[in-house]
Amino acid sequence: xxxxxxxxxxxxxxxxxxxxxxxGDNEKNWPQWRxxxxxxxxxxxxxxxxxxxxKNVKWKIGLPGKGHATPIIWGNQIFxxxxxxxxxxxxxxxxxxxxxxxxxxxxxxxTDKIHKFVILSVDRRNGKILWQRTVREEWPEEGxxxxxxxxASNSPVTxxxxxxxYFGSRGLYCLDMQGNLKWERDFGQMDKRMTxxxxxxxxxxxxxxxxxxxxxxxxxxFTLDKKTGKDVWKVERxxxxxWSTPLIVEHxxxxxxxTSAAKFVRSYDLATGGLIWQCTGLxxxxxxxxxxxxxxxxxxxxxxxxxxxxxxxxxxxxxxTDTDAIAWKLxxxxxxxxxxxxxxxxLYLLKSNNGILSCYDAGDxxxxxxNQRFEGMGNIYASPVGAKDRIYFIGHKGDMYVIKHGSEFKxxxxxxxxxxxxxxxxIVGNEIYLRGYxxxxxxxxx
Length: 446
Fold this sequence. Notes:
Layout: H1 2-27, E1 41-42, E2 57-62, E3 72-74, E4 77-89, E5 101-102, E6 109-110, E7 113-123, E8 129-138, E9 157-158, E10 162-166, E11 172-176, E12 181-185, E13 203-205, E14 208-213, E15 219-225, E16 231-237, E17 247-251, E18 254-259, E19 265-269, E20 275-279, E21 291-293, E22 296-301, E23 307-312, E24 318-319, E25 326-330, E26 341-343, E27 346-350, E28 356-361, E29 367-373, E30 385-387, E31 390-394, E32 399-404, E33 411-416, E34 426-428, E35 431-435, E36 439-444
Parallel strand pairs: 1-30, 20-24
Antiparallel strand pairs: 2-36, 3-4, 4-7, 5-6, 7-8, 9-10, 10-11, 11-12, 13-14, 14-15, 15-16, 17-18, 18-19, 19-20, 21-22, 22-23, 23-25, 26-27, 27-28, 28-29, 30-31, 31-32, 32-33, 34-35, 35-36
């Protein structure tokens, strides 16, 4: 009996040390597109409040090609995905050579050019490119949404040993930290609604990688072994196009994979792929990433309607639509493209893609404020981030606001850079990294 108790204590200590190391490593990095806790928040970061092209820019580098993937950071390495157009023309039916077409703002841009799909490693200390690897070279047959999208909008993810670069229909690639390819995986070609482009990012948990493959054909959720890229399990999904990224949460000893989509929000058992719960209620074109804290998951969408609901994981089993497992709902002020920020029990939501902000109590949905406009900001596609009791908002045209975290709306600073921005920021320590159409900025105290 004594030996058993000693063994239990040892296992408990090892488990907690492992958990503490994982949390500690993540906090010192930005390993995925919504940060160390998938909430958009760096709890111990302290980036500058103010900047412009001449103030608090530690370094700035031009980036090849085009991409809207968030910079991913581990140690002194920043990983950037991009698509670089070549001068090679792909033969296509019904198109003239060299022609790139945008039919209207509401229709996608298409190209006949072969592109290189590239992952770069940048030294975060000085902005120098450490290495650049082309993982695939081919014609992207799908369009770029509204002329604003890119063929490299899926953010990579890293565990500090390998970086997993994902390009949707161009595949998933595992490289070591020196840029050597270890394995690759081709999932085929997506058929997105109205060829609006792709954007879901992979999720990484311990030895598994999750890829959500929702489109107008047969949809899937893939769970892969991160060492080999082979399936651990995959499930078919009765689903249409979505652009959300899976959220992985631990609750009462079970790890769940939460997926947001138009027909259903679903939770799967990570160990088996079995369905734990599901519910309806979101709009079409689901993009925002779910967030979770204190056993409640928040899912939202804002295309041609508004929907947000908070799911209590403790009571969620089977079909939970309109049951007590839904803690509270919201039918206004929800985002279309930007994901929410969940910061110390406050939920920050941008309305549609506009510079209009609302803040709610995450516990009961109480409204602290709503419809606060960032004057002159225009559209926002990047997801906001939080640190040091501040929330950072990055506008498409280069206007950027910083507000005070709290129950009252207070603007602390308005900043501006000479670039356009769709990629979401990353925060590590006292630095914030902003990826524009042309440049990557490291903003830091001087």
